[in-house]
Amino acid sequence: MDTGSRRLPALILAGLAVATAVRCAQVWPQLPPVVASHFDAHGVPNGFQPRAVLVGIALGAQLLGIFVFALAPALLHRIPPRWLNLPHKQAWLASGRLGEAVERYATWSLWFGCATAALLLGIFELAFQANLTRQPMNATLAWTLLAGYLVLTFAAIVRLYRALRPPPAHGAVGDPAR
Known about the structure:
Blueprint: H1 7-27, E1 34-39, E2 45-50, H2 51-76, H3 89-95, H4 98-133, H5 139-163
Antiparallel strand pairs: 1-2
Helix pairs in contact: 1-2, 1-4, 2-4, 4-5
């Protein structure tokens, strides 16, 4: 994987940041001064705050998450190898392909950031809709988003672990360099 493989998730992550900012700007004038900001498992509001707090949390959480996931790939290349926690790290270090492993993790981090940003945008949109319609939050959709995110998280971790299997030993059977 090269840095070109990071372009699409980086663009999606930037797009989700812009979408969040645009949506917050759109709903701001329509929201009442005090909004429901916390909901129980059934979508019934049980916590209220000024709209500035809800919109600030929506923007802040999204931007902080995007910053962390976008910054991680840049930092991974600067972290000393002894501090990295990679599956089969010794095999990657021994083969001299640590840069490839770090690049795989960096790309994964950006895609995981996209999933996290999409979840946040979806949950805050449900909160905005509940406040705009003065109805309970759509709990079924909220739980579906969360369940989908958890399934995706599990699948992403499995995919990352598989992507970081030990590289084939030089000259091993099935090694294309042979």
